[in-house]
Design the sequence.
């Protein structure tokens, strides 16, 4: 799968590496700021208050 | 002449089901590890930093206001070692809106630059998960400086973990609540571990609902044990001094570098 994606990228190797790094940075940003906060909100306990 | 070995066949370009499945599983594993790292470490740095920044901005805004009232050229009041009697402390009205900032919280034990904003309400999404506040005031409990119980809650892990070190408090540690009026100094007295339904910990006299309050209590609640919600850790403090803003910042805070831009 990843090998096929690599072959699908255009340009010489240095350009492909650059594209991969930019994509990775974008994915990591989206994970840290969007996906993970949502997942933590849905999956993990959050209660810190006392209530009846 | 030795025979040339046959050329290695090129890897098939076709995607194999097992290959794709394997790569997907590895990807999921990496994502789970990243999530754990984010949850226990990176998230607190990101969100905690934003919450601290928001609190410092609020404190600077109050300092500016006070400077404007005293006159621009007036020198800042020197730090004060002895506060006034808690009886002299003004009491602000409880804000009406959810997550309205009512004070900031400064706890030297949690770090020299620790500062968070206390918002109105204890809604998880609106207040406790907020990147601006993170500490919530139990609606209907007393306000800072008021006879009774000023009760607040915050996360112990994730979402900035404002109370991540709550159980590290030691008897005698000071917990400061700052408003536009000045600094309310509370002194930590003790911890208690209770069931999540033990609502009388936020009564005007903790654990004695209905009694008439004679002291000004600060109650901080968070989850216990760490990463669990089975119990609540509760920290009680008693108000011991009042520092009006025009009189100057408590010396303990100015020595820590609090209030500097």
Sequence:
């Amino acid at each position: 799968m990843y090998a096929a994606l690599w072959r699908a990228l255009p340009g010489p190797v240095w350009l492909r590496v650059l594209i991969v790094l930019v994509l990775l940075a974008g994915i990591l940003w989206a994970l840290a700021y969007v996906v993970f906060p949502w997942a933590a909100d849905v999956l993990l306990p959050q209660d810190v208050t006392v209530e009846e | 002449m030795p025979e040339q070995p046959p050329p290695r066949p090129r890897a098939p370009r076709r995607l194999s089901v097992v290959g794709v499945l394997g790569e997907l599983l590895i990807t999921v594993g990496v994502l789970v590890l990243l999530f754990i790292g984010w949850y226990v470490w990176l998230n607190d740095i990101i969100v905690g930093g934003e919450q601290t920044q928001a609190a410092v901005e609020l404190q600077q805004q109050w300092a500016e206001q006070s400077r404007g009232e005293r006159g621009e050229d007036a020198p800042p009041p020197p730090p004060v070692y002895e506060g006034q009697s808690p009886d002299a402390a003004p009491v602000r009205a409880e804000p009406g809106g959810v997550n309205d900032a009512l004070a900031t919280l400064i706890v030297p034990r949690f770090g020299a630059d620790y500062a968070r904003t206390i918002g109105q309400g204890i809604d998880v999404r609106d207040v406790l998960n907020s990147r601006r506040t993170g500490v919530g005031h139990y609606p209907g409990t007393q306000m800072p400086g008021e006879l009774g119980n000023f009760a607040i809650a915050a996360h112990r892990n994730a979402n900035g973990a404002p109370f991540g070190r709550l159980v590290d408090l030691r008897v005698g540690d000071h917990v400061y609540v700052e408003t536009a009026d000045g600094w309310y100094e509370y002194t930590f007295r003790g911890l208690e571990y209770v069931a999540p339904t033990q609502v009388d910990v936020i009564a005007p006299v903790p654990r004695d609902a209905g009694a008439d309050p004679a002291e000004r209590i600060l109650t901080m609640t968070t989850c216990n044990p760490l990463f669990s919600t089975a119990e609540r850790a509760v920290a009680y403090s008693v108000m011991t001094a009042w520092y009006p803003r025009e009189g100057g910042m408590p010396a303990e805070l100015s020595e820590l570098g609090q209030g500097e831009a």
Residues 2-40 of chain A form one domain. Chain A has one domain: 2-40. The radius of gyration of chain A is 19 Å. Chain A has two helices and no strands.
